[in-house]
């Protein structure tokens, strides 16, 4: 808005040119907010409220007439109240840098005055007291010009190579060095004792280690000697165990081979031999029956037919035997008994057939064959 001015947060706006009804100050002070300024009729200036710094380096003479160079730093600013702003504005508004110069001069005078009433020892050991007295002495003068001091720091105190401060510190340095030497001697003694204890510990450890190593070597040598003595015996036992294992394995292989031979060669050969023997027995029985049939006049044809059938019966039985999966418990004797049983069964069948055929048939009512002029029919054998 035209004519409305606002100061910065660290500034005070001074408005002059109008009648100030709030007090006797020659201008109006505005901080923290803006104000309408009538152009041409009002004039606005700004005064800084920020922190400022002033350095002081002053040669001061103590109560003991010893010259000291004192360096100090003062932190100050314009007060926040209206009275301080008005006082500072009337003095520094045209040249605000003069605040640091004037503050340095004020504090230099107070430093010379305060140090002149103190000894070097008090100045060195009581710097805070010196700073407090300087602040208290300059507070009234600083308030008159609208300034407040936030801090005063004494940076250094120098006797300009006179040696007084060094001489004053010499007893303390000597005591400190003496204490340091004593402490160093105690530390060296403690270190030496610790070193000796460490050496004794290392020697004891080395001695115990050598004893343990000697025992270990003795045990190892004894074990090696015992192992050397037991080595041949253990080797012989191992070889004997190997021989026994091989012997047992050979026996098992021989038994297995024997069982294989019996199953593959002997049993088939025995079965074949038994078959041949049964056939021979059947052939001999055939010859005997043929002989008996030749001696008979009435049964020659019938017996001949039965005899011709008998080898076939026995042959079929033998063929069934050769292809059957039969377990023979008592070897060749059992096989012979079974074959004899088959022959006996064949002969029993043959006898049954003979008896059945030898039974005379019932008489038929038909006329005799001779009456019809026909020849008597031959009996037929049904196989």
Automatic annotation (TrEMBL):
Claim: Coiled coil is one of the keywords in the record: yes
Domain Band: 10-187
Localization annotation: Membrane
Record's keyword terms, sorted: Coiled coil, Membrane
Region (Disordered): 355-383
Keyword Coiled coil: yes
Transmembrane segments: none
Biased segments, Low complexity type: 367-377
Coiled coil ranges: 184-211
Primary subcellular site in the record, as a coarse category: membrane
InterPro entries: Band_7, Band_7/SPFH_dom_sf, Flotillin_fam
Pfam families reported for this sequence: Band_7
Recorded family membership: Belongs to the band 7/mec-2 family. Flotillin subfamily.
Name of the protein in its database record: Flotillin family protein
């Amino acid at each position: 808005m035209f004519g409305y001015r606002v100061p910065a947060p660290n500034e005070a706006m001074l408005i002059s040119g109008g009648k100030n009804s709030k007090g006797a100050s020659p201008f109006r002070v505005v901080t923290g907010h803006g104000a309408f300024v009538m152009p041409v009729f009002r004039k606005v200036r700004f005064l800084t409220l920020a922190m400022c710094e002033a350095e002081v380096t002053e040669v001061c003479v103590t109560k003991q007439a010893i010259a000291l160079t004192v360096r100090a730093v003062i932190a100050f600013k314009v007060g926040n109240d209206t009275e301080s702003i008005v006082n500072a504005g009337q003095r520094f508004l045209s040249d605000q840098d003069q605040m640091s110069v004037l503050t340095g001069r004020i504090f230099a005078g107070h430093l010379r005055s305060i140090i002149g009433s103190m000894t070097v020892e008090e100045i060195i050991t009581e710097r805070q007291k010196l700073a407090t007295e300087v602040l208290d002495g300059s507070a009234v003068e600083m308030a008159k010009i609208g300034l407040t001091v936030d801090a005063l720091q004494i940076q250094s105190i120098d006797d300009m190579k006179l040696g007084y401060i060094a001489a004053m510190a010499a007893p303390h340095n000597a005591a400190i060095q003496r204490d340091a030497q004593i402490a160093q001697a105690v530390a060296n003694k403690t270190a030496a004792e610790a070193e000796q204890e460490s050496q004794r510990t290392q020697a004891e450890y080395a001695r115990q280690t050598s004893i343990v190593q000697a025992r270990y070597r003795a045990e190892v040598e004894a074990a090696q000697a015992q192992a050397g003595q037991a080595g041949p015996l253990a080797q012989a036992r191992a070889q004997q165990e190997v021989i026994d294992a091989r012997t047992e394995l050979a026996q098992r292989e021989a038994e297995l081979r024997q069982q294989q031979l019996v199953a593959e060669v002997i049993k088939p050969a025995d079965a074949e031999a038994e078959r041949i023997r049964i056939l021979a027995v059947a052939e001999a029985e055939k010859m005997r029956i043929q002989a008996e049939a030749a001696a008979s006049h009435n049964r020659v044809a019938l017996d001949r037919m039965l005899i011709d059938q008998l080898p076939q019966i026995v042959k079929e039985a033998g063929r069934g035997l050769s292809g059957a999966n039969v377990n023979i418990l008592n070897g060749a004797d059992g096989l012979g008994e079974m074959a004899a049983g088959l022959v006996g069964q064949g002969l029993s069948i043959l006898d049954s057939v003979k008896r059945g055929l030898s039974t005379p048939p019932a008489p038929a009512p038909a006329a005799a064959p001779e009456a019809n002029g026909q020849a008597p029919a031959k009996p037929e054998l049904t196989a």
